[in-house]
Design brief:
The chain is mostly helical. It has four helices and two strands; from the N terminus they run H-H-H-E-E-H. The relative contact order is 0.16.
Length: 106
């Protein structure tokens, strides 16, 4: 599996306004996984050396969503109860629309 460089990780962290080094390992793990999801959705393989900007926005958004900065759907303070949406929001997939290939089944 492809492992992103420090510079590549920095790009995604800047998109998510992440300023610390604490989550570098998380980004290193998640970027290839989310890129694979984008490849599957778009029915193509994006080169890791030249990832299109829309795909970068998708990857950054999914990482931010999975990190629970987004996705919190409910919260209770009494006996501490949290609930999260676990599906990737459709609004993130709009970044992939220009790159998606159509398939004709039938």
């Amino acid at each position: 599996m492809w492992k992103p460089t420090f510079e590549e990780i920095s790009i995604f962290k800047r998109l998510n306004q992440e300023k610390t080094e604490k989550k570098n390992e998380y980004y290193t793990t998640m970027i290839p996984i989310v890129l694979e999801r984008a490849n599957d959705y778009c029915k193509r393989k994006f080169e890791t050396t030249d990832i299109p900007s829309g795909v970068c926005l998708f990857i950054a958004g999914v990482i931010q969503f999975n990190d629970k900065k987004q996705g919190l759907s409910g919260r209770s303070m009494g006996s501490v109860s949290y609930s999260y949406d676990v599906e990737i929001p459709q609004t993130l997939f709009k970044h992939l629309a220009p790159y998606r290939r159509l398939s004709w089944n039938g």
